[in-house]
Amino acid sequence: MRQHPFKIVIIAGTRPEIIKIAPLIYELKKSAWAHPVLITSGQHVDMLRQQLKVFNLEPDFELSVMKEGQSLSSLTSSLFSTLESAIKKENPDAVLSQGDTTTVMAAACTCFYLHIPFIHLEAGLRSNDMQNPFPEEFNRKVASLATSLHLAPTPSAKKALVDEGIPEEKITITGNTVIDALYYAQNIAEQCQYPHDKKNKLLLLTAHRRENLGKPLENIFYMLKELIKERTDIEMLYPVHHNPQVKNAAHKILSNKDRIHLTTPLDYLEFVAALKNSYLVVSDSGGIQEEAPALCKPILVLREVTERNEAITAGVAKLSGTDPMEIKKDINTLLDNELIYADMAQGGSPFGDGLAAVRAVDALAVFLGAKERREMEEFHFQPLRGTA
Q1: Domain boundaries 191-344, corresponding CATH code
Q2: pTM here?
Q3: In terms of CATH architecture, what is 6-176+352-368?
Q4: What end-to-end distance do the CA atoms of the chain give, in Å?
Q5: 112-147 pLDDT, tens per residue?
């Protein structure tokens, strides 16, 4: 019988990854059979440290892979060499990463080369468009090829994996741990402290996708500037991403404008407070497509395709694309039509129920042989009212 805990190396590189792995680390630390070791790659240094502080986590090892002006090829090369050294040093029983960043793809490949089981949290998301989102769709497809245990958030994600030839016995539907984190955060998040006039409706914007950089994003900014000018009943809060292309364009077009509040990236508690205080969300981000519906906030997605179609199907999110006039039309519809707004703001999450981390840890224990059977049913979404 095994006398020592299983060592699980958890690798994270970005802000969203910390948010989504925090509930899982909490659950692993509760168990007697697991010894989690957190390695951060440093892909998003400042924003990552911000979230570590929110969740009271300390990395066991910090890698420094990011360099100013670094290309994706250079980042990937750096990740391969640094992750291999770190994983070899720890010699874990398994490695776990979440999502679809370059850190995740490199971790999966490195584990394949080293013959170490790789566990993929949030496995099976697919847009089926290799350029959208870029490079995430490529990253998650590559990661799936090297994964030993796929922790899929939804039945749709499981189906995508099965359709690609992944055996069902290697997949567990857990729900998404972002809902676990959201339920934790909303109970302690303070009210939004930004100068928001309560008589106005607050529009929360997040925008930074690579495929929107340059003219597409600038045109959206110009449209939003005009919209805020035209309508005196709304305000906009935009936590601006650190990417220089995003930051420079945002401040050039949107700074020093009435009822437009540009801030630095918010920590998770501040962000959840802002989300709770918002009237609607406009975003090209990924995780917020999962968070907004859980807090009954309609979200317009600034993409042509999404890997989170469950929210679209449930009617709590809409693909608005990247045409500024179409986006403006959708925003005005939600601001002016109370019935359409109420239908999208019905609430409920097709992505989780707050128990995803418990299911994930249970599946991991079975996979490693720490227990003989799963103790929890897989996550299955109960349709929102008004949906089939």
Answers
A1: 3.40.50.2000
A2: 0.89
A3: 3-Layer(aba) Sandwich (3.40)
A4: 49
A5: 999 999 999 999 999 999 998 899 999 999 999 999
